[in-house]
Amino acid sequence: MDMEILDNVIFLGTVTLLSALQNVFFAYTVQNESLQKRPTHSAFDRVNVSSRNCAEVYPTFLALLWTAGLFCSQAPAAFAGLLYLVVRHKYFVGYLGENSQSLPGFFFGKRLMAFLFFMATAGIINYATNYFFGINFLYYIQTATKASAALLLIP
Amino acid sequence: MDMEILDNVIFLGTVTLLSALQNVFFAYTVQNESLQKRPTHSAFDRVNVSSRNCAEVYPTFLALLWTAGLFCSQAPAAFAGLLYLVVRHKYFVGYLGENSQSLPGFFFGKRLMAFLFFMATAGIINYATNYFFGINFLYYIQTATKASAALLLIP
Amino acid sequence: MDMEILDNVIFLGTVTLLSALQNVFFAYTVQNESLQKRPTHSAFDRVNVSSRNCAEVYPTFLALLWTAGLFCSQAPAAFAGLLYLVVRHKYFVGYLGENSQSLPGFFFGKRLMAFLFFMATAGIINYATNYFFGINFLYYIQTATKASAALLLIP
């Protein structure tokens, strides 16, 4: 993205990133509580719960995807987003299965969202160092991100 | 939108569009399950359920609105979005009504969201053909979209 | 933000703002209903409910933050967004506390979201007057917004 456009949204992106981080903290709190009681669900409840879990994390995912893509590098962010969609589909379908199988947790795709989060953080830190000290290492970040995006395919 | 700005977000928009499509698939699955059991709700439950239904679809609507507006044409997308707000209001108020009347389904505004989805898809396909083959038919898409937006007013 | 970029998104932003307003109307309806029955919750229910309340308002907050930042002024919008994150954290932690203490309501951070909403509305109205009458008072809006942002710190 051009620098003069980023100038207009850098603070908004930072707050968005912080709010996504806070959402993850909330999700972990819910997960810790819900691990202690896991009732047996009917089929309808399972569909409902899995859909609600997916829907709750969806805005956080969108915010991370766009901040990572705008502030750092587009192609690795879109690649991680695609992988996240695959993981989400597996989560949703797996949740609908038999009750005896090990249910996946409340929060899924942690690695992909962490990748997007570190991309966005690196982009914002690079913006700050570029503004204050004139040091711009965005090219190296982008190269490292593109190289490490393939590592996300490891299950 | 300018081409050089779209260059920076085309992949992000594509992934956003795919995720919106996946959300619709999830919503249909929940709807199919919930058709088989429709309990009688109290007034509080009805408010709660209708608000939650609206809130769950809201990020998907926002994602479709912005991808359709950025990648295809702004005015028809905003027009469809306005109509969607009207439909959502009718849905919410209708849900609060008597229990005996036919409740609207889980998922509403299907036609408007499909219109936004096809607009965004046409814009992204046009971007790909413009990039690979140099064929740009965005002008015809925008004209057709503007003409067909009036058809959305038919109830 | 540059004017020629805003030209492409002004209608989308307006619809987004209207939808955020509608979301607030929905939230108030739920709050009015739920004030009449407030059952005693277990710890798990409290975590679940507070997290769901936060998650439901999250897309509305993001939409208001970005429309306020893009159409009016960036720094006060980001400042109000940061304060909103603090308020949200206090809300979430306070909800987890003892059942006897006064539970905060369903909808929190009203003042901050109203501030963001008025910023976005002023920016869109200024865009309209600039387009139709050639009157641009964005500079005065931005100055007034920056001065009044400090008032948000008053508890």
Q: Can you characterise this structure?
A:
3 copies of one chain form a homotrimer. Chain A contains 5 helices and no strands. Chain A is mostly helical. Chain A is elongated and about 60 Å long. The model of chain A is unreliable at 99-104 (pLDDT under 50). Chains in contact: A-B, A-C, B-C.
- Which band does the percent of strand residues of chain A land in? under 5%
Please give the alpha-carbon distance between the first and last residues of chain A: 31 Å
| Shape estimate of chain A | elongated
Please state the CA-atom Rg of chain A, rounded to the nearest Å.
18 Å
Number of strands of chain A: 0
Poorly predicted tracts of residues of chain A: 99-104
Oligomer: homotrimer
